[in-house]
Amino acid sequence: MSAASGMSTALTFSRPILPKNTNIRINLHDDYRAKIFNTGSPVSGDVVITPWKDTRFDIVSITLVGRASSRVEAAQLSHYSSHAFLKMNMPIPESAYPTPRLFEAGRTYTIPFHFVIPPQLTLGACNHRKQSDFVHDQHVRLPPSMGCWDFDDLSPDMTRVEYLIKARVAEQPDLNERPVKVMEADRRINVLPTSVEDPPLNITPQDRQYRLTKSKTIRRNIFSGKQGVVTATAAQPAALRVASDFKGCAETSVLVDLAFEPHSPEIAPPKVNRASAKLQATTWFSRTPMSVPPNMGDGRQLALTGIPQLSYSMSIGSASTEMNQTSWKMRPTSITRRDSGYSSDGHPTDSLSDSDHGRPGSDSGGAKSPLYHETSIRIPLKIETSRKLLLPTFHTCLISRTYALQLTVTVADTKVNLTVPVQVVVQPSATQQLSPDPGLPSFDAAMEQREEMNADGHLQPRLLRQPDVCPQERGRLPGYNEFSLRRRAIPAT
Fold first, then answer.
1. Which domain holds residue 79?
2. Buried b (16+ CB within 10 A) or exposed e, 309-338
3. Using a CB cutoff of 8 Å and minimum separation of 24, what contacts does 303-309 make?
4. Are residues 353 and 301 in the same domain?
5. Is residue 6 included in any domain, yes or no?
6. pTM score of the predicted model
7. Are 417 and 374 in a shared domain?
8. pLDDT digits over 368-425, tens only?
């Protein structure tokens, strides 16, 4: 991938005398400490070279590099892994170099550069073995900077995602040999790519990180009998949307459905006292490429391969809602109604307490109640993102960041806990929404356009071509040009 074309590159020089320790530096245009580069943002500046002695060179390279690194400590050993997922080269024309290729002492040489933050990586950025196309699609998305911000981004010291502008002056006496570095400089930038909300995850009982439904037995006290079984069920809420400059708040809300199956019809539904939500950020990292989403499954797939994978979790933001009055609705129990002890995909759960036997809403030897009660509550969540940075959900070959909502619903004196996945996305700024990138279409848009062209082609009349029957000179075969000039179109029947 190369830098955007259309920008003239010229090398200029002047004669200010600078200290001897100043050889090469990188200056960014419109630079300030907290500057953030989003998808489509231009990254432009100058490479300034001021040698303190005459320096011969052959090549000057300016690149934008994206790199992820992780450190995993296992068996008293520290394993360090690094993956360069992005490398954009700035083309420098031959006319920009001085003749001869010599940087004179005391002169200042300025080389401008210009890059554009791409919407996604190339397909070759992830070339290891994966178990699904979903993993590959996630791994070729541009990840945000991690571990490089001025504020806490909820990541451990063992993970890092950084973007660097690298400038190198090298000498290559022989084309068959590798260039020898003469001087080098780099400049780190913070990248926060915009993202879109993905469809909800398909959670199954094998996904141990999440629990979308859970049932608990309701009792008046520890010595009384069962009043019934309450079941809480939640679905993945809308994504938490973060501003492209980290200013403002991220908000969402999750809807929790409650069902109460009484032990007998005369038992009234319990009171819902309180509901709370807490956001948990988990950073996953490994020393080898991850072939499956780290937050899905029960973890045994990676354990069988012997790949050490670690996770680091932190909680940020919490909200508690007092339920003044909850309106329960009575419903007749239907044999077609899904049992409350089942998860969202119809598989039975093991969420009942140890004292529960049989199916929810019934004793081990009792009959099921002919009715049940249901209600819904909504739990809002609002998180300030100016001090604790909420990075978007992302997956790379070595590092992933996922989020989950830990919900607690207090019914009577019983707490029902759920863990629900939630995405964090970065919404484009108002300028990006009003001025969309007029560059190349996305891969999906290009494929859709191609399919439309193929469909239109089937509706057009086909033309079969054959050569005209005309006399030829004896003893000489027709040439290709002569043959192609004597063709005519005949409509197919």
1. 12-191
2. bbbeeeebbebebeeeebebeeeeeeeeee
3. 308/72, 308/74, 308/79, 309/72, 309/284, 309/285
4. yes
5. no
6. 0.77
7. yes
8. 678 889 999 999 999 988 788 999 999 999 999 999 999 999 998 899 999 999 999 9
